[in-house]
Amino acid sequence: MKKREKYPLIAFSVIILFFYLFLTHLIIKTDDGHFLGILNEEGFSIFEWLKERYLTLSGRTVSEFMMMSFLKLNPVFWKFLAAGAFTYLIWFTEKICSAFSGVLTQLQKNVFCCCVPFLVFIGSLNPGAFWFAGSFTFLLPFTALLMTVTPLAFEFFEVKHNRIALNIISVIASFLACSQEQTAALTVTFLVVLIVAVLHKHKLKIYHVIPLITSVAGTVWLFTSPGMTGRIAMEGGSFARFNEMNIFEKLLCGITNYFGYSFFMSVIVTGIFAILLFLTVSAMYDEKKVKIFAKTFLMFFAVVCAGANAAYIIVCHKVPDKGFEEIFRKGDFGAFDIVIITLCFMLLMMFAAMLVLIIIKNRKLGITVSLLAAAAVMSAVVLGFSSSVYASGQRVFFFTDVLTLFASAVLISAGKSKKNIYVYNTAVIIAVIMLIINCFNFALLEIPIMG
User: Fold this and answer.
1) CA torsion sign, 223 to 229 to 231 to 236?
2) Residue 235 scores a pLDDT above 70
3) Cβ count near 54 (within 10 Å)
4) Other C-beta atoms lying within 10 Å of the C-beta of residue 437
5) Which DSSP letter does residue 24 get?
6) Any idea where the domains of the chain sit in the sequence?
7) Residue 135 CB: number of other CB atoms within 10 A?
8) What gap in Å lies between CA 177 and CA 179, rounded to an integer?
9) Which of 2, 93, 162, 391 has the highest count of CB atoms within 10 angstroms of its CB?
């Protein structure tokens, strides 16, 4: 990488560190204050507390150990850790995107990657990354996920790297990555897929399998903890119908949860992805039928995300995500709800068809983007199998947004359409605006927008 191409990452590192150092803080009226109170109790023992949590409430042993350990320290240590995590996330994205070539220069691709964090929906970004307690459940495990898959990903995409250092980091990071339910499932899935892909390229080494072993061990520890069963039972009280729902209903609950967020709330993220899919397919195909389908896809996306959203608010007097929550809590599916959900399913199938069209023309690009897009959807859909599906607000979609934007970064990096520059310019402007909004948000509000 040329010296000039490193400037965006350096600038981002400075900006994100400045943001954490001078604007973020412990929010005492939330879990930050709750855990701080526990920490200051007389005779407190972190190991006894973790044991109790594991047996009664949570199997997130590693992330909770880190959280309580950093809570003992000056908050500045957490700020440096979180800023470093974001920097690694951007660095990893830049490295993967460098394996693809398109109309954008490497410098422009790097700038787009640096915009990713501030394109995430603000109600998901803030509690997932800029809130002390939330960062140990979302930002840090996700960065650990990336660290875990880095050696295999770099082998597959033929990115030059320090094999010894990154493989050691991969094994260590796997314990944190698998200390959160969503990232545990994502980590194991990504590792299995990448191991198969690297094996197919005859580049697999025995040490590449070690992170999978530790990840599976961490995932088993997490999902078999007595505390997880206890937590489900405890949170089930807020969703009385959950235990009555069959597997199909839970799956549908998770899918509509994804629809309510990605199609009707985080429209900027999904819109960037949809437009880049349209531009990529349009540039790949000369056939008139394919071009018509691509245009129909984009128009249908606009109709569903804008028109159906407005119609739902007018008819039902509530936003779709709250409406979907209500129908699953009550088990009462109205005709209009069914119509809107059907339209969303049709749009999701069109997304899948666009990805298939890319795979046909460019297998490496298509499979990479499809894997990321599928992971983004499934990280939201799996929430339907938890009684706490409606208990945690928008922060649970942090992974969905980041993975969708990661897929968008790959698409724009490989895009051959000259119109990609307009998407690039728009993304940069939006990211700068959202950064400014969040600066005022954290500087002026005691509890900033938290979703």
Assistant:
1) positive
2) no
3) 19
4) 13
5) -
6) 102-137+238-444
7) 29
8) 6
9) 93
